[in-house]
């Protein structure tokens, strides 16, 4: 493992090498400079500037309301804090579906204005044209299949996808299609572990899972969930590594008490 710590910059090529060598890929989200800096310095391989910013940063119920301008703002903040990780940015809802020209313009803006390294799009065959067009500009594309949160109103629920044979078959076909089209990696969200393992074996590109079991090439979580900043969201696939909500709340309570009781600032904390 120490060999990989010496990598100065993670690239799409590095991830391909990791898959071939059987080295698992670690990926987390970040939306601002300070968090990105911490996550990057801890040795994460990929940082996703997710449209989940719509939920955890802006308080929306879905990922749909976030705009391209807001994604560029979050992405540029993250890029300034990163030295090693590959920074992938979600193309937000409405900026690539059914319009490959808009998809290309949106991707170019993210790369140019934010300095990102790649973009991520949700969907399979239905967005093939958009992916192809973005790739013509030399912009790396990460795919996303399974539960695709931008299609939440189509699904009607955030439950596990591809349990039925028809959907499972389409998912495998879409994964193969994304690889053939030129995607450098695929995220699989909330699908049966066995199906995810099959997909990871069928394609040569890295497959990163979230709620897709351990048979894939890497894992991604939303950092706010993993760090316990959010409390309400408790899916089976989530492991909380910290309970930051309570920790921060308790620190703030202590600060309030200290200010009210005139304990802060003390004689050493003033000029």
Please give a structural write-up.
With 271 residues, this protein is α/β, with parallel strands linked by helices. It folds into two domains: 2-240, Alpha-Beta Barrel (TIM Barrel); 244-271. The chain is 42% helix and 13% strand. Helix 6 packs across helix 7. It is globular, with a radius of gyration of 20 Å. The chain starts with a helix and ends in an 11-residue tail after the last helix. The model has no long low-confidence stretch (mean pLDDT 96).
When the domains are counted, the total is: 2
Q: Which homologous superfamily in CATH is the superfamily of the largest domain?
A: Phosphoenolpyruvate-binding domains
What is the CATH C level class of the largest domain, in words? Alpha Beta
Write out the strand line-up for the largest beta sheet, numbering strands in chain order. 1-2-3-4-5-6-7-8
Helix/strand-derived category reads: alpha/beta
Order of helices and strands: HHEHEHHEHEHEHHEHEEHH
Q: How does the overall form come out from the CA principal axes? A: globular
Low-confidence stretches: none
